Amino acid sequence: MPTPTESHSPAPAEAGTPVIEFTDVEKRFGDNVVLKDLNFSVARGERVTLIGPSGSGKTTILRLVMTLEELTGGYIHIDGEPLTHEQRGGKRVPVSKKQQKKLRTRIGMVFQQFNLFPNMTVLENIIEAPVHVLGQSKQEAVQKAKSLLEQVGLPDKADAHPTSLSGGQQQRVAIARALAMDPEILLLDEVTSALDPEVVGDVLNILREVADTTNVTMLIVTHEMGFARDVSHKVMMFDGGRVVEEGHPETIFTAPEHERTQKFLGAVLGH
Fold it and tell me: What single DSSP character describes residue 162?
């Protein structure tokens, strides 16, 4: 695990409309309540890491923002605009698919399992959405893709297919693909958990560079506590679908107040 250091940039001001806002969010799978009465917001440029045991609802939060799961109750707003549901005439009603699609183009997600298209080359994977969703010219998209491949250390892999790459290389391509959309929000879901231990550091260093050199808002789920401490402005401890504690990473990792946080970090960090 990388040596923890303090976050490189100050937390953004909370003033203004949050980039992501959860209001009374509930998510059920059948009788299983995964999230209940969830209320929190993320400011523009803020990097927030969700920690906690498996099954505590962290990944579900990212999937709701990406509209890969449907809200059971409550509301999510992106830049003040309703993502999937809104209040209209005193009732909770779905927003249009057009509205949902418009907001989704501002959100990028890097998944645990890469999710690259195996029948496409690396370059084709990266330019697919910028060309067909954002309407970029192929020339513009290719130029940006090659620049991103340089950034993630894979300039010679443009014509390779994902199946010929290692897990660490595939994840770096997935990061480049997400960044190709110039997202306002970047969601990171356990991006190192499927990787061999020796390449975890390489992938985390790329994400550290993204955090240091852009103002993208990040919502992160990870078990890499050194990374969480290094890049986050705020850490939120989840258990049973609820936030049990939140605060500055230095406070959460050195002096957590809640007994559940203390036990979790004690188990994960080995003390």
Answer: G
Tell me the sheet residues that pair with 61. Answer: none
Q: What is the reported pLDDT for 198?
A: 86
CA distance 130 to 142: 10
Q: Tell me: the pLDDT tens digits for 18-62?
A: 999 999 999 999 999 999 999 999 999 999 999 999 888 999 999
Beta strands in the chain (DSSP E): 20-29, 32-42, 47-51, 73-78, 81-82, 85-88, 91-94, 107-110, 185-189, 217-221, 234-239, 242-247
Q: Which residues make beta-bridge pairs with 189? A: 221
Q: Give helix then strand counts, H and E, for the chain.
A: 9, 12
CA-to-CA separations, 148 to 158, 176, 177, in angstroms, rounded: 11, 6, 8
Per-residue pLDDT tens over the stretch 188-197: 999 998 888 8
**What is the Cα–Cα distance from 59 to 221, expressed in whole angstroms?**
7
- Burial string for 111-136 (b: 16+ CB within 10 Å, else e) reads bbebebeeeebbbbbbbbbbbeeeeb
Cβ(58)–Cβ(35) under 8 Å?
no
- On whether the CB atoms of residues 173 and 96 are closer than 8 A, the answer is no
Sketch the domain layout of the chain as residue ranges: 1-106+226-271
Q: What is the pLDDT of residues 114-163, one digit of tens each?
A: 889 999 999 999 999 999 999 999 999 999 999 999 999 999 999 999 99
What's the pLDDT at 271?
62
CATH code of domain 1-106+226-271: 3.40.50.300
For residue 162, the one-letter residue type is P
Is the pLDDT score of 7 beyond 70? no
CB neighbour list of residue 220: distance below 8 Å, 6 or more residues apart = 47, 48, 49, 50, 187, 188, 228, 231, 232
